[in-house]
Fold this sequence. Notes:
Layout: E1 6-10, E2 27-28, E3 31-32, H1 33-41, E4 48-51, E5 66-67, H2 77-87, E6 95-99, H3 109-119, E7 124-129, E8 132-140, H4 145-154, H5 160-167, E9 169-174, E10 177-179, E11 182-184, H6 193-206
Parallel strand pairs: 1-4, 1-6, 4-5, 7-9
Antiparallel strand pairs: 2-3, 6-8, 7-8, 10-11
Helix pairs in contact: 2-4
Amino acid sequence: MNRDIAGIILAGGQSRRMGGGDKSLLTLGGRSVLDQVVARLAPQVGPLALSANGDPTRFAGFGLPVLADTVEGYAGPLAGILTGLEWASMACNGVVTVAGDTPFFPEDVVGRLAAVVKQRPGAIAVASSGGKRHPTFALWPLGLHDALRRFLVDEDNRRVSAFIERYGVVDVEFPMWSSGGHEIDPFFNINTPDDLAEAERLLQSMEP
Ligand SMILES: Nc1nc2c(ncn2[C@@H]2O[C@H](COP(=O)(O)OP(=O)(O)OP(=O)(O)O)[C@@H](O)[C@H]2O)c(=O)[nH]1
């Protein structure tokens, strides 16, 4: 548990590749994908909130604050990250974001990102696996919110990779795991109906 770090679950996208709706509310292993994500993140952080747009009542069952993006339109994950930075109390030592479509992420993701930031104060620590960056899984310094608002609104730039490169990034690599003879990327995310079927297969292969 890292009580001084706030957690934000990014679930405010349009799920176009899934055909619309909320992909995080689809069923995986008998409960919602988002339920799996909340269960994984809650023990790792202090304050926790969902980043989502539209009618918040569809997330009421989670008992968490639901933060609508504070920039207009669907500006992508950076909009949810900005809203999380604006929401987190100054008592927090940063905000960890995770994607609400990624059910198997590591149970030590927050601890490992926080440990790296202790060595590199002010940097954005970003998770990677197999050498690939996952910029929605990152620890963001609180003080970045003004720069991020300028980037999104004044520069009209939505590219997460461009933002993190500009403000200093440190990569934190996480290992693949193997289960049932398969190598599994812990940051496997669900974009399409085929991905959801694959996640169900992976979940079954993990069960003892
Ligand atoms: N708050 C917020 N979150 C977003 C936004 N766009 C994407 N996300 C979240 O960021 C993560 C990665 O998003 P994508 O899968 O690339 O985008 P998506 O809109 O959900 O899906 P597609 O429409 O299929 O691209 C998901 O957890 C999304 O819910 C946004 O505009 N605002």
